[in-house]
Design brief:
The chain is α+β, with helices and mostly antiparallel strands. The chain is 44% helix and 24% strand. It has helices at residues 5-13, 20-29, 59-70, 107-118, 130-143, 180-192, 198-208, 226-251, 254-257, 274-279, 301-307, 322-404, 410-420, 456-466, and strands spanning 37-42, 48-55, 80-86, 97-106, 123-129, 149-154, 159-165, 168-175, 217-219, 224-225, 261-266, 285-288, 406-408, 425-435, 438-448, 470-483, 486-497, 499-501. The strands form 6 sheets. Strands 8-7-6-11-12 form a 5-stranded mixed beta sheet, with helices on both faces. It has a 4-stranded antiparallel beta sheet with strand order 14-15-17-16, covered by helices on one side. A 3-stranded antiparallel beta sheet has the order 2-4-3, sandwiched between helices. It is extended, with a radius of gyration of 31 Å.
Amino acid sequence: MWYSPEFWADAEASGYKTLDHWLGRAFTSMGLKKKTPVTVCLSGTSLRTEVSHHAGAGRAVYGHAHATMAEQFDHRDGLYQVAVSRLDARPGIEGDDAWYYISAESDSVLDALVAFVERAGLVCRGITGLGLMHARAVATRLAGMVEAKLVCDVGEHESIVAMGVDHTVPLFRPFNVGLAPFVDAYARVLEQAGAGESLSRARAFVFSHGIPSRDDMIDESLGLSGRSILPVLQPVIQRLAVEIKNTLRFGLNDGAIDSARVELDGLAARVPGLAAALSGYITCEISCGGSSERAHGGAEPSACYVDALRGETLGDNLLRPLRLVRQHHQKLFNKCLRVGAVTAALVLGAEALLAFADIRNTTTELASLRPRLDAVERFNQQSGDAVTLAADLSAVRGAIDERMGDVARWGPGLAVIARSMDERTHLLDCRGIHESGRAWYRLSGEVDLQGPEDRTLGILLDAIEADPMFDAVELESARVETRNSAAVQRFIVRVRLVTQPAAPHSVVLAAPASATAGEGAGP
């Protein structure tokens, strides 16, 4: 659901009361009951945020956070709240060097948001920015990297350039350029063309057309092509490229920038042509990560993006207005009083009963644990044997794979290429080559063109790329010539075949026929 900036300005001025009806209906449709605890996640707001790297005790970060955020608030803003969240923390690991996400907001804004949720009958635990969840997801993923990996993870309103190597995150920088400017650019063009629901259609066009070429047709009914959208998209691409370039310039050594390989992830990995567009401004290699539109089955990208961040546990790193903090402390104090009174009354009476019960239960358990102890010892022995067999099997498979290598299906690949060509496509040369351990076809041919908009070559490349026999298609060259007063498009295409291990992995270990249960034979 999209609202105009004027509507949001009126909603904020009224304490979001104009949205009460909508929020109530939304929670009812979700099946939420009254008094359900919820956390409010903000995106694209004026929430003050900062990512900072600190060495030393975590308590020192809070002093730095308050000093930094104090400079961003005017005395007319009144009281403000600050939250600090460690980004690259992993279970069981507590290091001195860490990245911290600092966020702050005025108490009046927080109180209005909490009251907005409470009017719908829910209990608000606190408020955080979607950028925090995005940052924690990226930092946690990169903190688990052993080999160096440099990514640019693009979100809705922000992007993060970070590096993970040897379970550390030496480089981590967010900046305020995300997917939203691309959607806004498409929306402006659609609005000028007289299209309704321009924002929703613009978002769909971003993930279906991305960064088009000048001759790509975006919407025939509106007469929109790549020539219409590229001038509006160009400043957004340049801004994103400048932020990435500046991050690499200050975060890496001069010699490491040209050899670096930046992997686009998050929402950007599903925007067609974005990696190629950025490569025109950045000297290092830009590629797309594992996320893709096809991997999500065509689902609405915003939902996929939010679902990927839902597993984050925020704990107490939430922004709460002073009213909510006082309520929390009062409830905690009352609970402690009740628990203390009940505990003091029960401890004395229960202590004698527990001591007698412990003596009786210990005697009984000693007699009953002996059979279980024997079973555990047998299980440990069998587990050790199983681990040894698994290691042997892995070593055998590795040796087989190393000896046999990978194979490519050359013959079926030619059949797919032949089926993909029509009568106006003529294959002049086809060569099979090996390059960097991978199998390639190098195809040379020509297409009889029927007009300047003829996409016969594009259809051929799309058909080859869509077939599972191939995992990469590269167009080396394409030019148009005139032969006997007819236009002919000559082309050279490289097609990479999918390889697979030549050795089978259907190895099954069987116990010797002479083995018995007493000798350690297993199922």
